[in-house]
Structures are given as C-alpha cells and as structure tokens.
Design goal:
This protein has 476 residues and is of the alpha/beta class. Helices cover 35% and strands 16% of the residues. Bound molecules: iron/sulfur cluster.
Length: 476
Amino acid sequence: MASHFSGVLQLTDLDDFITPSQQCVKPVKVEKKLGKSVAKIQIEDDGSYIQVDQDGGKQKLEKAKITLNDCLACSGCITSAESVLITQQSHEELFKVLRNNQTNEKEQKVVVVSVSPQSRASLAAHYGLSSSETGRRLTSFLKKLGVHYVFDTSFSRTFSLLESQKEFVERFQRKEQDRKALPMLTSACPGWICYAEKTHGEFILPYISSTRSPQQMMGSLVKCYFAEQLGLSPQQIYHVTVMPCFDKKLEASRSDFYLTNEETREVDCVITSGEVLKMLEEEKVSLNDVTPTPLDILFSNVSGNEFLSHAGSTSGGYLHHVFMNTAKQLFGDEIKELTYKTLRNKDFQEVTLEREGVVLLSFAAAYGFRNIQNLVQKLKRGKSPYHFVEVMACPSGCINGGGQVKPSSDQNPKELLQKVDELYKADLPVAPEDQTRVSELYETWLQNVGSERARELLHTQYHTVEKMTNGLVMKW
Ligand code: SF4
C-alpha cells in the first residue's frame, strides 16, 4: 500500500496504520568497567547476552524485565502497543486483585472500575446492544466478579472540558504577551503526548494544554476524593479504567500521576475494550445473557438509567466545547451548530468564527500522525493559523483506538467503525455547565473553578524526553 507520507517522514517510522511495533528494548552500554578491566558483551546465536571478562571468563547475563515505568516513549509503540510486553496492567492483574479479595480479608481492596464511553460503544457493537444497555450489563458482570463500583469517564470528562474552556480563554487573553500561549493543543491523547515529548520536546510542550485527560481526572476523583468519602486511604482502593487504546496504560504509569506520600497510582490498572471482551470470554459469559443492573450514578454521566454524552467529536468534543464557550464568552456569539470544513482529508478539519470578514477564532482537529506532523511543521515555520487544535493520534480518533474490539473475520472494519460511531452518538449530549453534580464537586471538593486546589488536582505537566540514538528515529 502506498504511504501518504513524504520520504523524509517515512524515515521516522511513523505511519497512521496500526502495525506491530519495533522491538521494545531499553538500550544498555555494551562495555562494562569492572575495576580497572573492561568487560565486553557479546550476543550469541540464540540471542542471549554473554559478558566476556578481560581474562576470557564468560558469564550469561539475565534479561532485564521492562515495565511501563521504563518506557522511553520512543514512538515505537505509539498506537500500536499490542506487541509491548505489559505485565503490570492487564486484566489478569484485575482478576488477581479480585481473587485476593476473596481469600485475604485483611488486605481487601475496594475495587473501582471506570469505563470510557468509547469502550462501551465498542462492546455494544460487538453484542448488538445499545450503549446504555451495554453499560448496565457490564456493571452487572463486573459486580458479580467482585467489583464494588462501576463509574463512567464521560463524567470525569466534564472536568476536562470545563478546565479546557477556562484554560483556553486565559491563553487567548495573554496571546500578545506570550508567544506560545496559542495555539492551545489538546492533551487527552497519550499517544500524541508521548510523541510530542520525545520528538519535539521543548519546542512543542508550552503549546500543550495542562488540563488532565478524563482518565486522569477520574484518577484524581477516585483516589483523592472518593477515598476520603469512604474513610479509606487511596492505597485501599484499586482503580481500574477501561479504555479504547493501550497508550492509556502509559499515561496511567506517568510519575505525574503517582501519589508519592500515599505510595499509590491514581489509576492502578488500565484494560482495553478488547481485554474486557477477553474477560467475558474467559468467564464464558455473553453480555446478551447478563441481567442488567442499575448504574452507579455517583460518578456517571446519566439521566435515570441512561448514559449521557457530550456534543462534538467521539474523541471527547474538546474543539466543540472550547469553540462554543469562547465564542460566547469573548465575542458574545451563541452558536447553535458548528460547520466543519474538511481540508486535506477527513482527519483534518477546520472551524472558524468570522465577523465582517475578520477571523475571530480559527480551530482545527488534526487526527493521525500524518496530520499531526504537518501541523507541527506549520507551527515550526510560523505558518499555523490556528488558535486551538484537537490533536488525536488515531485516524478517526478514540472510537478507532488500537484497544477496541477487533472486527470478526466476516466483518468489514469500516462498517464496524461506523456502527461504533453511531452507537456512541446515540447517547444524548449534555452541556458540561449543566452537570449539576460536577458543579457541586467544584464547590465541595475543589473550592471553586480556577482555585489552587483545582489547578493541583485537575492539571498536569509534560517533560522533554531525551532522544536515544536510533537509526529509525531521525531528527528532522
Ligand atoms: Fe488512545 Fe484516543 Fe489517542 Fe487513539 S486517539 S491513542 S484511542 S487517546
């Protein structure tokens, strides 16, 4: 298949197609000083590593175990992490905790599972159910396994949308003094964040929104608020999220989301939609046969027993909400509907607000690495016309994440994607400002919007990752 990239871009080994990753290795020095002598490392035919000392003595070296904490965000596994050996975050780990809860009363943990709306839609398409029905049956299945609470990350996404709206208005107002205040680039996609930190570091990071993703908002909510409400330490809660991609595992493993004093992560384990299907299959359960159960409404975006959603893209609707809010707040325009203009391809779209021929707001959505790379190049050349860009690593966005349920052999992938898209959009949208439960939490938990506490618990930071010398990653 012909690639859409220019020759230069191909050398970076990035493509928009989800393909097996490069081998995930942590580079080590091949010469080791032992006192005054230098030992050499030689690689045998069977791939094992042998240390050869100066006196000729040989010693077989142990293989180092790579965990998510060692990940260098080398771009090799972005959006294609299926082949990375992830031992800490898998559905087996969740099973282990649930089994331990049954046998070890003293070390029992409260198990909380937060499900993303994209995963719900993916499983709904697989079982031929509505998204809400899938949510109710999944809650029932998980609770039978011993899970205590099942929440919905479209609830925590409300915080992400409100904080993004606020952050954008602040950046827009200081754009004259701060050259890098705009465009504000969204931060909910860890595939994009890994790539930005590794490949463009210091140049790009100031543009990226500091607002946390819905997964990490829920992490904060569950470990810092809910634990307190239950009278537990954050460590006594085991928090699992169900996500459409593997990159969310990397996000949960970031040191920024580790509670040092409490020695626990805000999200302990991330499992994908596909892994949930595996759990169901391992338990020999079909969601079609499960009796639905009422939803846990405490941290769920629901009306009655039906899930609600947010307007805009199936990747969270950031562009939609930030645009609507800014148009109203800064320019007094109450916009009913956004008109998207497709540019190079369906994954690069633009929305503008104009008055008397003057462009007041210029927003874009750039999905997939070919569009992301074009965007970054424009930024570097000072040719980007945008104030805001919703950036997502996967073509078609989160609905098409690498961890979604795969099409069966007789299923057309495009038709499946369209089905998942329809199921996701069938949930009625609600404006973030109208979610009274979130407004209450701002008052009781965070003091108010924009408080120091909100800044600490709802925002994060990014770090330049040192480049390793690698023939496949070329500086450009
Ligand atoms: Fe994951 Fe969504 Fe980013 Fe794809 S676009 S890597 S599904 S967060």
